[in-house]
Amino acid sequence: MEWIETTGSTLDEAKERALDRLGVAEDELEVEVLVEASRSMFGLKKTEARLRARVRPTSPRP
């Protein structure tokens, strides 16, 4: 399966969006964090969390 990218105000929110889009349970999800959510020094600018996710590949049965 191909990777999808999602964003959210937190990593948990971005992960929930990925779960909804892929329609799988959390234990079936493979996630790579691209950017963690943060705020600038004075809190004026906020960076959203961004992650890549896909359905965890399963090994074929012999």
Give the topology:
Elements: E1 4-8, H1 11-22, E2 29-35, E3 38-39, E4 46-47, E5 49-55
List keywords for this structure.
3-stranded antiparallel beta sheet, 19% helix, single chain, two-stranded antiparallel ribbon, 37% strand, 62 residues, alpha+beta
Summarize the structure.
The chain has 62 residues and is α+β, with helices and mostly antiparallel strands. It has one helix spanning 11-22, and strands at residues 4-8, 29-35, 38-39, 46-47, 49-55.
Account of the 3D structure:
This protein is α+β, with helices and mostly antiparallel strands and 62 residues long. It has a domain at 1-37. The chain has 1 helix and 5 strands, in the order E-H-E-E-E-E. The chain has a 3-stranded antiparallel β-sheet. It has a two-stranded antiparallel sheet with strand order 3-4.
